[in-house]
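In the laboratory, one determines a bound structure by crystallizing the protein with its ligand and collecting diffraction data. In a computational setting the workflow is compressed into a single prediction: the sequence and the ligand go in, and a structural description comes out. We illustrate the idea with iron/sulfur cluster.
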Amino acid sequence: MTKMKRKTKQLDELLEIKKTTCYMCACRCGIRVHLRNGEIRYIDGNPEHPLNQGVICAKGASGIMKQYSPARLTVPLKRKESSERGKAEFEPIGWEEVFEILANRLGHLRATDPKKFALFTGRDQMQALTGLFAKQFGTPNYAAHGGFCSVNMAAGMIYTLGGSFWEFGGPDLDKAKLFIMIGTAEDHHSNPMKIALSKFKRSGGRFIAINPIRTGYAAIADEWIAIKPGTDGALFMAILYLLFKHDAYDHQFVARYSNAAGLVNLDPDSPQCGLLVASDSKDPLTPHLWWDPETNQAVTDHKAGVLPALEGEYQLEDGTPVAPVLELLRRQVTDCTPEWAADITGIESSAIIRLAREMIALFKEQRISMPIHWTDSWGVHHQQVEGTPVAFHAMRGLAAHSNGFQTIRALSVLMTMLGTIDCPGGFRHKAPYPQMTPPYAKPPNSSESIRINSPLSMGH
Ligand code: SF4
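The predicted complex, in C-alpha cell form:
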C-alpha cells in the first residue's frame, strides 16, 4: 500500500456521515452531518431526502453553530448571590445543585398550585416530550418558539380548517395555476418552497406576491402587489364580497364540507342567539339543523342530492328566526367593497377586482378533475376529485399582528368558498391533518370536558 493510500484509508476511518433533519426552521429538510473524529466538520443537504432533495440554505448549513458557537451554554449558570437580577452576573454550578433547586421549587408549586409553573422551550424537536412533562406536572401553561412566531395563524387555520400552512399542509404547486403568496417574509419556508416555485414557474404557473416589500420570493413573482402591513384581512374580506356579489363560490363544497349551511338562532331574546341550532341527532356528523329548500323545513339529514340553503332567512316551527352561517357571512361583508379595502390596504380597487376576477375565472373555467375514487364524510362515493387550481401561502406577515388570528380565518374562509381545500391545485393537508379542533391543553387529572369543533368551521 502506498503512503498516499494509507493516509486516505486512515482518513476514511475517521470520517462519518450522520443523516438527520435540520431544525433551524420548521421545514425539517434532510441533512447530512459530516464528522471527523466525532466532531462536526460541515452540514450539507441530503440528496436522498424527498423534501429538499439535497438543497440546503445558509441557515441550515450554519446549524453547526448550535454545536460549536462560543456563545453556547455548556454548563448550568446561576445568578451570583451578591448580584442583582438584570446585571447578568452568573457563575457555573453543577447538575446536582440544579436538580436540587428545581426539585425544591417545582415540588412546592406542584403541591400548591401546578398552574403557577410555566414552561417555555425554544425551537427544538422535543415539544412532544416537554409538553408531556408539563401535562404530567399538571400545568396547561407551556409554550415554545411558535408562541412568539406564528401560532395565532396556525391556531386560526386549525380552528377553521383542521390544519394550517407549513408542517400541517401547503399549496399543491404541482397542479395549481395561480399561486398567491401573502405576508411571507423574505425566504421563510425556504427550501421546499424554492424547489416547488421553480417547478411551478417553469410549467407556466402564475405567481402573485402580496407583500409590503418586494424581496425574497416576491423578486421572482409575475406580479407584486404592495400592501400596507397588517391589512391583509381587509383584502380577503373584499374578495369575499366580490365572490358573493358575482355568486362565484363553490356552493357544493361549502354546503357539503363546512358548516356554512348550519342554521344560526337569530332570536335576540333567546340565550341561544348567535349559536348554531343544535339538532337532536346522535350522529356527530349532523350536530345542527339545515334548511331544506325542497321541503321548506329544517332538517338534520344531509340527504344525497339536496343542497341545503346557504343564504336567506327562515323560521323554525316554534317561530325562531334562523339563517345559515353563510348568510351571516354575506351580511358581514356587505360593506367590504373593493373601495373600502383600497383605503385600508393601499391597493387600488381595480387591482382588488382584477385579483378576484382571476380567482373566479379559474373557479368557473379551469376546474381540475382527476379520476380518483373516494368516499366523503357523508358516505357518498365519488368517481373523481375536483378542485380549483388556486393555491395560497401565508406566513409571518399575517401572524405578526394582533389581528393575525382573524386574518387567517378570513383567508381560510376565502379558500373554502373557492373550494380549494384538499383538492388538486389547492391547499393540501399533510397527514395526520386535517384534525378536529384540538382541545386546549389540560392536565391529565382534570375533569373538564374536551371541546371540539367541526373540521371546516365558518360558524361564530
Ligand atoms: S429551509 Fe434551511 S433552515 Fe429550514 S430546515 Fe431546510 S435547511 Fe434547515
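Confidence is low (pLDDT under 50) at residues 448-460. Keep in mind that any predicted model is a hypothesis to be tested, not a measurement.
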